[in-house]
Each structure stands twice: as C-alpha cells, then as structure tokens.
Design goal:
single chain; about 160 residues; Archaeosine Trna-guanine Transglycosylase, Chain: A, domain 4; 3 helices; about 15% helix; about 40% strand
Amino acid sequence: MVEHLRHKRNRYIYIIFNHISMSDVIGVAFPIPKSYISRFFDDGKTVFVKPATIFKELRAGMKFIFYQSHEDTGYVGEAIIKKTVILEDPFSFFKIYGDDIYLTKEELENYFEAKKTWTVTSKRRKSKPRKRRWIAIELDSITKYDTPIKPERFVPVSGQYIKSD
C-alpha cells in the first residue's frame, strides 16, 4: 500500500506501508502528541527521543516528518536528520544534548516507567531478555508547514519509513 502526500514544494513524498526496499528510504515519520509538537517549532528543541523501533536505515541528511497525533492529526512539518544516537539508558541523552531534548527529564522518566516492561527476546534462540534501546535523533532545518497534511492512515507509534518514488 502506498500513500503519497503533496509536499509544499510541489514534490511528492511516498510512504510505503509494506515491503519497503530499504535502498529507497529517504527518511522517517514519527507521531508526536500535539501538546509536545510546538516545542520543536516554537521553543527551539532539536532532539527527538523515543524507544528505538525504526532506526537501522536512518542516516544523516534524511528527512524527519512530524506527524501530530492525538488531536488535529496530520503531517505538520519536517526537518533534516543531523545525527542519530542509540543508547540503552535514555537519561544519558541529557548528558549529550541537555535542554535540546523536546521532553523534560520528568516527562522522559514518566514515559520510561510506562515502558519499563518492554524487553527484547529472540523467538529463535532462548536468550535472556535485554533492555530496549532508545534513539535520539538530532534535527536541523526544522520547518513547520503552513497547513497540516492529512494522511490516509495514521502513523503508528513505532514510526514509519519514508520512501521516494
């Protein structure tokens, strides 16, 4: 299934829901609640932090699309990925990025506590559960769209790769 959205520069961005050829990935879209999204556009926050779900194909220079979730949903802006960092302890990101992270330490702690039961195990091998890794995505050239773009489908919590066509 392919969904396209018209970009403000009259180009199309294609979002592929199944069977992505990773060589065509140009970025990622992540949902961010409406109550937090303005921190990127108005407050100058430049670092997005979340459990690492989609990250293996992300590289510096790729697009990051902001999907506003919870209310008034839609694509509301974009940025360029400057750098990604993967760590097991999400609080270590504050040592690296400080106040550039869009969440406060208290908000991250609440998020972390809610997700504390997440473990990763292999179904093929009998392995011990290990901690879920977290990703910090440092953003540059953050741009807010004039009007939100309504997608045909919501962006899942895990995020969604963006593919050009």
